[in-house]
Design goal:
single chain, alpha/beta, eight-stranded mixed sheet, seven-stranded mixed sheet, 21 helices, binds ligand 6R9
Amino acid sequence: MSPAAQTETKLFAPSADTVARAHVNAETYDRMYAASLADPEGFWAEQGKRVDWIKPFTQVKDVNYNFGEVSINWYADGTLNVAANCIDRHLATRGDQTAIIWEPDSPTEPAKHITYKELHGSVCRMANILESLGVRKGDRVVIYLPMIPEAAYAMLACARIGAIHSIVFAGFSPDALAARVNGCDAKVVITADEAPRGGRKTPLKSNADAALLHCKDSVKCLVVKRTGGQTTWIADRDYDYNEMALEASDYCAPAEMGAEDPLFILYTSGSTGQPKGVVHTTGGYLVYAAMTHEITFDYHDGDIYWCTADVGWVTGHSYIVYGPLANGATTLMFEGVPTYPDAGRFWEVCAKHKVNQFYTAPTAIRALMGQGTSFVEKHDLSDLRLLGTVGEPINPEAWNWYNDVVGKGKCPIVDTWWQTETGGHLMTPLPGAHATKPGSAMKPFFGIQPVVLDPQSGVEISGNGVEGVLCIKDSWPGQMRTVWGDHERFQKTYFADYKGYYFTGDGCRRDADGDYWITGRVDDVINVSGHRMGTAEVESALVAHAAVAEAAVVGYPHEIKGQGIYCYVTLMNDREPSDELMKELRTWVRTEIGPIASPDVIQWAPGLPKTRSGKIMRRILRKIAENDFGSLGDTSTLADPSVVDDLIANRANK
Ligand code: 6R9
């Protein structure tokens, strides 16, 4: 984040209308926040009533953050079903209300309006199909689908029968898909023939075919028809969803699940190794997703709410599907991209469906900002009441454009900071309670106790106007419970460095007013267009290529993407650098991981700066990538300091 963002102090107060309408105003925020810390058991017992329980809980919180014995439980003796909470309980009062508005990639294809009643039927049919394929409570199902209603049906169908879903973003490669299918030992992969996006089509089924070559023979593949494009078919492995749905019953009883039974696994990047399977459970997650959705976005009955994320990311889980549907909302699901057929698409869709709350990522705002204001002005945005952002720090320039051009100065902006691991928002201004500052995540949500620690000593830094690493004291119901199959890794990643706290991996500043600013990751995770990427993943993809001896990957500031991927590559002795090889390596990484991991810059590096013990000095590589040669710091501890001069002299000119 630029230093300017951190010193911006102009306050944008909510309008009287916004305050009057809001579920939470300044006074209620202060009172509820204090109560949530003073009596967490009482506070969360009350919030637990947001969902319908089959067997009510009598225990609320049972949490141990001690390294070696970390265990997190909420509402542990209660039972419930997430699909019943997201659908069945609304049928009596809002069966004919639209649950999901689906807007396809192409604006000429008609949108769909799916009522809660219809959603119920489709989810039950999908649940029965999964059962007929042998899926039982606790089994894993991988979902590899475009942004089509069937993606939501599949999630809710799993929840209905107690299967654990793991969604793999449709932009991921066959290799990445296979690793995730194997990682959670899935019984079924749900995919579609093709995924249309931005006027192009990704051959999802053939990607799945390629992935399944590396998976157990018993894995079945359920195929949804999206485009009708040609697919190859393997008898007794591939199943036709559309055909089976015609036969399947539209009733399936919801399974009674324990609050701590896993609801889903979602793979996300960390600073080391391959992506880890973040596990979220049933009761606490749903309470937290529902509560944050209602309060952060100030959702009211009848509102049309749109989150532009993909269900392949946590934002899609909590804020397209589970949070909104638990609240009986109308949630919009968009298959396309912001710039197709032109840079006005978001605003066209907002106008067409009279969207009230709009939630997107800074990278999209920056990309659209570059296209000028005329694309926005063409469309009637008078129904918009609130704007949200998520995924990375937002620079003040983008914030101001969002506020002025899109929100016409009358829509509060909620800059929501949270993570795959946290299940829902941990810090955000609340629209009717807080004046906002461009670029600041402002205030903790109820029950959240952010602390700023000294990175070296791990000691809590009190007072305002301070900066350090961001940790969270104590637990909240939406917190992840473990890493799938590796509780040890869970403890080591989040509870080892700073004992007694949850370590977020982010740095932050608490300004003079006590408001929070996220300053970015303090580990080897980079954030490319709001997508988390471990530099280690890209490095391991690069070194898997026969020409590559060694690779080091860092992030560098990128105007649109926030961060770009900068790769230093050392070739095998017998290979010469060339433009063709550079192209080949780019394609290679795309194939190994997916297009989102495509290197922005590749610099040939005859050597990498290493300590005498062989550790790559990434700090130096980051500075060189940033074109910041004045502050390289001490390079005398390097095994061969001359490699730095060479890297500077040859810094890729991009
Ligand atoms: C929800 C999501 C998490 C990382 C997180 C942080 C960055 C997310 C942010 C933000 C500044 C915000 N991040 N929201 N940074 N301001 N409003 O994005 O989850 O994909 O797991 O990424 O994204 O660095 O640690 P995830």
